[in-house]
Amino acid sequence: MQRMVATCRDAGLPDPFFEEIATRLRVTIFSERVSRRALDDTGHAILGALSDASDRLASEIVAVIGLTPRTTRSLLARLVARGLMSEVGTGPQDPQRRYFIATSYH
Q1: What is the pLDDT of residue 104?
Q2: Closest by CA position to 42, among listed 62, 20, 17, 65
Q3: What is the pLDDT of residue 5?
Q4: Span 41-101: which CATH code?
Q5: Which of 12, 39, 44, 63 could cross-link 33 (Cys pair, CB 3.0–4.6 Å)?
Q6: How many CA atoms lie within 13 A of 27 on its CB side?
Q7: 18 contacts 63 by C-beta, under 8 angstroms
Q8: Average pLDDT in the 6-27 region?
């Protein structure tokens, strides 16, 4: 239940509504956003690393924010999924894939 609430809050959705009906539990998850999804300090650091350059490799972002390459790639994938960044590469395993701030974020 706590993860459901946290995930909804991270997505900018209202808290889910829990109701007990006889011996069952009904959970209502609303789809209308009440706020923009919050961006944590690491997300701000990644976007800050991109603000002074037109694009960067994941390895360059790792050097700026000081996290492990795997953690950084995971965070970059989430930012791309949220539409805050875009990526250009030949495939998901391309080590030369470059990351940009999305034009809608500016």
Answers
A1: 56
A2: 65
A3: 87
A4: 1.10.10.10
A5: 12
A6: 9
A7: no
A8: 89
User: Which residues lie below 8 Å from residue 82, measured CB to CB, with a gap of 6+?
Assistant: 37
Q: For residue 37, what pLDDT is reported?
A: 66
pLDDT band at 32 (very low <50, low <70, confident <90, very high): confident
Q: How many helices (H) and strands (E) does the chain have?
A: 4, 5
**Residues 27, 39, 1: CA angle, nearest 5 degrees:** 20
Q: How far is CA 93 from the centre of its chain?
A: 19
Q: Which of 80, 82, 86 is nearest to 103 (CA)?
A: 86
Pull the structure tokens for residue 13.
Answer: 């959705």
Average pLDDT over residues 1-23: 88
For the chain, domain boundaries: 1-38, 41-101
Q: How many CB atoms lie within 10 A of CB 70?
A: 9
DSSP label of 32: S
